[in-house]
């Protein structure tokens, strides 16, 4: 136990804390303490936010409130904006064809110009989904606190970052003060043991975790992911796992920083450079939870037992391995039966049927969960094995312009096109369908995104089956849900 003054790196700016560090503090404890300004009378912490990411959907109302209150943005250099949710993926010619989208794009341009905030728009060559560009630019770094008006901000935890989604009034609070009033979450350590089988991906790991712990199992917790399966994952795989923490109820999820993290960050645009990088690595290493760290809860997930997984219902916890049959409500615990019945009623699937063979109409590869270059490479491996089935519409939407450039340099766009997939421009696209990429009527979509809620993909009656990008590509070619291991 000792008292320290700990720097928090974010491009040369330092926040300090002088709270004692216990030898058993986990990463969340350390990062929280380093950013705690003070304890509030409510018992919450006034927490300094190192990086605030904004986009066009949840920021306009916050800026309107700032104007009304005649407040300046406290640290414009700590806010970064992009355009992702509403951006069309076929043509981004201005003015945008959709009036509302054009208004939202114009609003964020105006707000950023007025308040001195950097905007990464399509003309910048760095535009993309907010949770894709932060990591790829090196903005997301270990030990930071990051907030964004989007629930999948947990993605950034892959670097050992405490990152969470916020609401519009909190966007305003950060713009005005760079701080938030928050209750500290408990920490659940999740060890994923064993080794993944070929054809099993990070998406399957996160679906397995949510299935085991439930969609509300993480409420009040931050998830710390570790164990042999997480240890050997790439940063992009960890981003996928952390992304879906919120789908398990945990507002924030993270993996401890290690050599994989440091290698990823070296020489990125916003990473510390030269001697500052070495100094940052020393700090980042000190943040990792020690082997005997204390947690509020510990859980093991058997990585050997995880199969390629598919969601069948109306929340991400309603998923199963590709070899399994759909659950029978009568066999489920009494408290789960109503939600199973509701899912069957919406999805028009039958208890006891195998999930394999379920026909699809649309295949979507993209999103902040699975729109990165490694996702596209795996999907392209599958795309090389055949052609999209007649009647299936298949979209590949890179998570950012940088991902698109890298994929095109490798010729992946040609692989997809040759197989009958559409190669689109970067954005959120059909994950949330706030742009023209929408399901129609009762269409059923094999999707690499993160939510299968009712109406999520643009049609109030549309249906979503979540799976890995490789599984989506395999389903596109087969015309129905299929085990990717039979294809690779
Ligand atoms: S890809 Fe989907 S989940 Fe991710 S930021 Fe966009 S809309 Fe939100």
Describe this entry's structure for a reader.
- The protein has 488 residues and is an alpha/beta fold.
- It has 16 helices and 21 strands.
- It has helices at residues 27-35, 60-68, 99-115, 130-136, 168-177, 202-213, 228-231, 235-243, 259-265, 275-287, 334-347, 367-370, 373-383, 401-409, 412-418, 469-478; strands at residues 2-3, 20-21, 36-39, 45-48, 51-54, 79-82, 118-120, 145-148, 162-165, 179-182, 186-193, 221-226, 252-255, 297-302, 309-311, 319-321, 362-365, 393-396, 422-423, 444-447, 463-466.
- Helix 2 (60-68) crosses helix 5 (168-177) and helix 6 packs parallel to helix 8.
- The longest helix has 17 residues, at 99-115.
- The termini are far apart.
- The relative contact order is 0.13.
- The model is unreliable at 1-18 (pLDDT under 50).
- Bound molecules: iron/sulfur cluster.
- Iron/sulfur cluster (SF4) is lined by residues 84-85, 129-131, 150, 152, 367-368, 428, 431-432, 449-450.
């Amino acid at each position: 136990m000792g008292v320290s003054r700990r720097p928090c790196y974010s491009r040369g700016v330092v926040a300090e804390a002088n709270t004692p560090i216990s030898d058993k503090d986990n990463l969340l404890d350390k990062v929280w303490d380093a950013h705690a300004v003070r304890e509030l009378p409510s018992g919450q912490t006034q927490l300094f936010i190192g990086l605030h990411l904004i986009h066009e959907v949840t920021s306009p109302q916050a800026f309107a409130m700032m104007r009304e209150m005649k407040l300046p943005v406290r640290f414009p250099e700590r806010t970064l904006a992009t355009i992702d949710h509403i951006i069309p993926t076929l043509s981004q010619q201005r003015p945008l064809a959709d009036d509302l989208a054009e208004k939202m794009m114009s609003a964020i341009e105006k707000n950023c110009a007025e308040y001195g905030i950097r905007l990464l728009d399509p003309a910048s060559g760095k535009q993309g989904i907010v949770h894709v560009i932060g990591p790829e630019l090196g903005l997301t770094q270990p030990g930071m606190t990051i907030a964004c008006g989007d629930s999948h901000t947990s993605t950034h935890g892959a670097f050992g970052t405490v990152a969470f989604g916020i609401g519009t009034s909190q966007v305003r609070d950060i713009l005005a003060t760079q701080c938030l009033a928050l209750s500290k979450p408990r920490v659940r350590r999740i060890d994923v043991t064993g080794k993944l089988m070929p054809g099993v991906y990070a998406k399957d790991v996160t679906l397995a975790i949510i299935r085991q712990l439930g969609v509300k199992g993480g409420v009040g917790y931050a998830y710390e992911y570790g164990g042999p399966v997480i240890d050997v994952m790439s940063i992009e795989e960890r981003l996928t796992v952390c992304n879906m923490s919120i789908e398990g109820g945990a507002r924030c999820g993270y993996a401890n920083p290690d050599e994989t993290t440091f290698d990823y960050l070296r020489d990125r645009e916003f990473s510390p450079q030269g001697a500052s990088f070495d100094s940052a690595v020393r700090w980042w290493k000190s943040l990792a939870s020690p082997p005997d760290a204390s947690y509020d809860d510990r859980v093991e997930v058997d990585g050997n037992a995880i199969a390629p997984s598919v969601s069948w219902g109306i929340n991400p916890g309603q998923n199963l391995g590709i070899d399994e049959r759909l659950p029978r409500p009568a066999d489920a615990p009494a408290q789960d039966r109503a939600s199973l019945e509701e899912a069957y009623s919406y999805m028009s699937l039958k208890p006891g049927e195998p999930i394999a063979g379920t026909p699809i109409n649309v295949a979507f590869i993209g999103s902040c969960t699975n729109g990165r270059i490694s996702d596209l490479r795996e999907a392209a491996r599958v795309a090389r094995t055949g052609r999209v089935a007649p009647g299936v519409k298949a979209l590949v939407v890179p998570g950012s312009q940088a991902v698109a450039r890298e994929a095109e340099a490798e010729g992946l766009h040609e692989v997809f096109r040759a197989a009958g997939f559409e190669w689109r421009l970067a954005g959120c696209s059909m994950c949330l369908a706030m742009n023209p990429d929408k399901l129609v009527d009762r269409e059923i979509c094999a999707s690499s995104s993160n939510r299968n809620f009712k109406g999520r993909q643009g049609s109030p009656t549309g249906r979503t089956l979540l799976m890995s990008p490789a599984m989506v590509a395999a389903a596109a070619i087969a015309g129905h849900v299929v085990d990717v291991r039979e294809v690779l």
